Amino acid sequence: MRTCPICDKTSQMVGNYSNRVRATQFNPTGKKRKQPNLQWAALPPQAGGGRLKICTSCLKRNRHLEIKMI
C-alpha cells in the first residue's frame, strides 16, 4: 500500500455525487480510491544518504531533511 513514512498519509475513499447530478441524465459514479502523491526525495548525508518516497506535503515542508538515523 502506498504510504508516506513520515506522516503516514495513506489512500482515501473520496467522491460522491449530489442530488443535482442524480436528477439529471448523467450516470452518477460512486466513490473512488485516491492515492497520495508520493515523490522521490534525497535524504541528507547525516541520515545516511539515499532516497525515500514521501508525499508532496512533507516534501514542501522539508521534513525529509529533518530525518535523523539512530
Report on this model:
This protein has 70 residues and is α+β, with helices and mostly antiparallel strands. The chain has one domain. The protein is 13% helix and 23% strand. The chain is built from two helices and four strands; from the N terminus they run E-H-E-E-E-H. The chain has helices at residues 19-22, 56-60; strands at 12-14, 32-34, 38-42, 51-55. A two-stranded antiparallel ribbon has the order 1-2. A two-stranded antiparallel sheet has the order 3-4. Strand 3 (38-42) and strand 4 (51-55) form a beta hairpin. The radius of gyration is 18 Å and the shape is rod-shaped. It starts with 11 loop residues before the first strand and ends in a 10-residue tail after the last helix.
What form results from the Cα inertia axes? Answer: rod-shaped
Mean pLDDT reading: 86
Major sheet description: 2 strands, antiparallel
- Order of secondary-structure elements: EHEEEH
Assign a percent range to the helix content: 10-25%
- Total helix count? 2
Question: Helix/strand/pairing class, anyone?
Answer: alpha+beta
- The radius of gyration is 18 Å
Q: Uncertain regions: pLDDT < 50 for 5+ in a row?
A: none
* Percent strand: 15-25%
Cα(first) to Cα(last) distance is 26 Å
